[in-house]
């Protein structure tokens, strides 16, 4: 069992696709263990996209991810990183096959509905950006 980070980006929230995306995860027998609707601060956006800091599109990434609400989640299951990335489809919706989130709903490469970690190391880093240890511990009885 492994875990990964998945975010429904502002365009996915605006287009009311959160339920559809959750449904696809659950049909694939993945388990959402933490989830919240939030707004990404500029500081968190800079940390999230730090590997792109020197690229010309960095400012656009930050502006997009901070423009509205996102749904951040921790997803668990066998080969969670690979499974979630397969469900998402290629970054460019034109190249994403039908049946994937981006293939079915994506419109353009700059607004491609979801972000998923590309490795277990990235997942742990991204999870720590969006969730506290208490949030990951779950409800107490």
What does this entry show, briefly?
The protein has helices spanning 10-14, 18-27, 42-48, 58-65, 80-88, 101-105, 120-130, 133-137, and strands at 2-8, 31-39, 69-77, 114-116. With 141 residues, it is α+β, with helices and mostly antiparallel strands.
Secondary-structure blueprint:
Blueprint (H helix, E strand, L loop, with lengths): L1 E7 L1 H5 L3 H10 L3 E9 L2 H7 L9 H8 L3 E9 L2 H9 L12 H5 L8 E3 L3 H11 L2 H5 L4
Antiparallel strand pairs: 1-3, 1-4, 2-3
Please give a structural write-up.
- The chain is an alpha+beta fold and 141 residues long.
- The protein has a single domain, classed as Nucleoside diphosphate kinase-like domain (Alpha-Beta Plaits), CATH 3.30.70.
- The chain has helices spanning 10-14, 18-27, 42-48, 58-65, 80-88, 101-105, 120-130, 133-137, and strands at residues 2-8, 31-39, 69-77, 114-116.
- The radius of gyration is 14 Å and the shape is globular.
- The chain starts with a strand and ends with a helix.
